[in-house]
Amino acid sequence: MTEPNGAHPQLPSAMPLDAPLDASLGIPIGIPLGLAKRGYSGVIQHLAAGNAGSALSADELESRLIELGFVEGARVEVLHEGIVGRDPIAVRVENVTIAVRRREAMAIIVA
């Protein structure tokens, strides 16, 4: 079911429509922050550094993200996207604004 403007009624407008859904509740179970569009806000569910495709090792990437404040339960919001290829993105994590590359943001699973 969609609303008159074509938006899915259970998803925030910036949530990708192909985000995985919890079968019983019909709500998103988590997407990589690197896929989120400007205006998206959510909560960090976990880090999946092995799937990010970063030049850094999974352990190094996870360590750096944690040091920047990307920890489970933190509220995040995508504030801005770069002009070329929408990269990097400016993200507010709690009360701090951080710029990250989309490929590193793919390691941050949010809902």
Distance between the termini: 21 Å
Average pLDDT for all residues: 80
The percentage helix is 10-25%
Order of helices and strands: EEHEEEHE
CATH superfamily: Ferrous iron transport protein A (FeoA)
Tell me how many strands there are: 6
Strand order across the largest sheet: 1-6-2-3-4-5
Q: Rg, please? A: 14 Å
Beta-strand share of residues: 25-35%
Quick one: biggest sheet? 6 strands, antiparallel
Q: Using the coordinates shown, work out and report the CATH topology.
A: SH3 type barrels
Q: What is the highest CATH level, the class? A: Mainly Beta
SSE class: alpha+beta
* Model regions low in confidence, pLDDT < 50 over at least 5 residues: 5-19
Helix tally equals 2
CATH architecture, please? Roll
Task: Summarize the structure in words.
The chain has 111 residues and is an alpha+beta fold. It has one domain (31-110): SH3 type barrels (Roll), CATH 2.30.30.90. Helices cover 14% and strands 26% of the residues. It has helices spanning 58-68, 102-105, and strands spanning 31-32, 41-47, 75-81, 89-93, 96-100, 108-110. A 6-stranded antiparallel β-sheet has the order 1-6-2-3-4-5. A hairpin with a 2-residue loop joins strand 4 and strand 5. The longest helix is centred in the middle third of the chain and has 11 residues, at 58-68. It is globular. The two termini are 21 Å apart.
Topology summary:
Layout: E1 31-32, E2 41-47, H1 58-68, E3 75-81, E4 89-93, E5 96-100, H2 102-105, E6 108-110
Antiparallel strand pairs: 1-6, 2-3, 2-6, 3-4, 4-5
